[in-house]
Please model this.
Amino acid sequence: MRLFIGRVVSWFGKHELLNFINDKLYLKIIYYFFMGQKLNLYKPLTLNEKIQWLKIYDRKKIYPELVDKYIAKKHIEKWIGAQYIIPTLGIWSNFDDIDFTSLPNKFVLKCTHDSGSCVLCKDKNNFDYQKTRTLLSKKLSRNYFWLGREWAYKNIKPQIIAEPYLEDNIGNGLTDYKFYCFNGRVDCVLLCFGRETGNTRFYFFDRDWKLKRYNKLGKNAPKDFTLPKPDNINEMFDIAGILAAKSEAPFVRVDLYNVNGKIYFGELTLYPNCGLDRNRLPETDLYFGELIKLP
Model:
């Protein structure tokens, strides 16, 4: 019942029906219903708590540019080089402006101003244009900020961006390498794979490629469990560290891809899971929180 109420509240928030509630109170409400605990903004301890604190008190001017999926590429190219940037095939303010004849047979569409609006096209001949139009047009009409009061997203211009369709050799689709960075230092990487199967899996590894039992899946994994280690994993850790330091964020998750040995920048995430992650173990949430030195 508690989680159900939390989802109802967040639904009203997403549809901008709770705008009259100030950020602090709104975050305390959704935190309680999703996490089952009172949010301590006076002395936050865990990563989830500190993310809520950062939403309210850490509002650097550069943050909106770093989470904008189009503008962020300009910063990343300047910081580490164009060779790590996924090419932009086009960018539009409206779905009906997209010239699909100019796009390759396989491509990706996603909004620049939110999270979770990615649409994959593996074959233009079998692509559901109307369903995609409905989805992305709806996403363009919403301000992602109101769902979880993630400040960096509040004033981003909503646009649709197209990129090439990428896939690696680990599993179905593309594996995400999500590097958890605290005050410019990389602690670990979370591998996320199997999205296209409907059975997404997440496992943490350290720089020496040892499994870290930080979440529920990792805790229950066999003793000798591992995943394929990229030959250039050290370069990936180094890149994540550079981007984390350049962002000047007390906490940031740097998302990278590794397509058969070639590293690509994915995105910078300041508030993963909206700071409401219940899959990490409680001791992990506390450990990560201890790594963040708040301003």
